[in-house]
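Hey, quick one: can you model this chain's 3D structure?
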Amino acid sequence: MVVVNANNWHWVDKNCIDWAQTYFSNNLTSLTAATTTGNESVKITSIDKLKGDVEVCQRKGKLISLFDLVLNINFETDEKEKGSINVPEIAYDTEPDEYQFQINFNNQSSTKNDLYRSLIKEKLIPQLREKLSMFGTDLITSQGSDILIDNDQVTSKYTAELTSQSIKSQNQKPVVKSKTTLNKSSSSTTTSTTKSKTGDKTTSFKLNPSTFQTTQEQLFDTLTQPQYVSMWTRSKAEIQPVENTPFKLLDGLITGTITKLKPVETVEMNWRLSNWKENQYLKLKMNLSKGSDGGETILNVSFEDCPSDDEGIVRGRWEDWLFGIRFSFGGIV
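Sure thing. Here's the predicted structure for all 333 residues.
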């Protein structure tokens, strides 16, 4: 890529999605994990799907990376059982400890799925998390040089200094931030722990109320109409605001049934991730009410019978979605 950009002043961007595909193939397909006995093992075999946007940008001497990706990885066990690991969001502003991983087995009836799932969570996912945390830095290092003019050709001391600072900061290794009162999840704590019909431990919890600068009618439509749901999930949504009808989100990673609708007030669903056991659903309830200001609507979201191991995934996904809806109307999430 040839750049004609006096003093590195003007905005330049570079599409790097093809590079990202090669990067993940080279850096992830060599990862393996094994039990302490060595009798069971799992290895990453290929990148099944990479969708989204990846760009390196420069203006006024500053290099930045912007990316928002969905990654699907194939794996295989020592017994030749196959499956996939879905990472629903890899974004430029995501902390390494916030990455979420959804594990799916092609053969849902295998008796050793639980063993391999534990192995993946304990030994393979930490490796994936470390590799993903370096993506932004490696992206800048590999793809940023050809959208910058060399500093010895920059006559502006201001942009030359910005360029040097930008390169230096991008070469620093990302650090996993500890949760503080400023960056903790806004969700309430889990309210109870029980066992589901499948015998798995489940939890019930709710998110803190969210206030939106819009009417109940508009927010209700945003939560139930396919054209709006597609916007805040950032994927095609197969859903209709009709009771007892199925829905599918994120290419089938999330499915369920709308069980109850009370226009402008209530939405209830049976909701599941694709890697959960057959017929295992959580109960999702969304209640809408008027705020103290006539132009505000308050949304309360609660969950029942969520598998304990996946509470963080469900909670994080809905927090991200609510944050996205916020920008449609404004308000406090």
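One thing worth noting: The longest strand covers residues 41-59.
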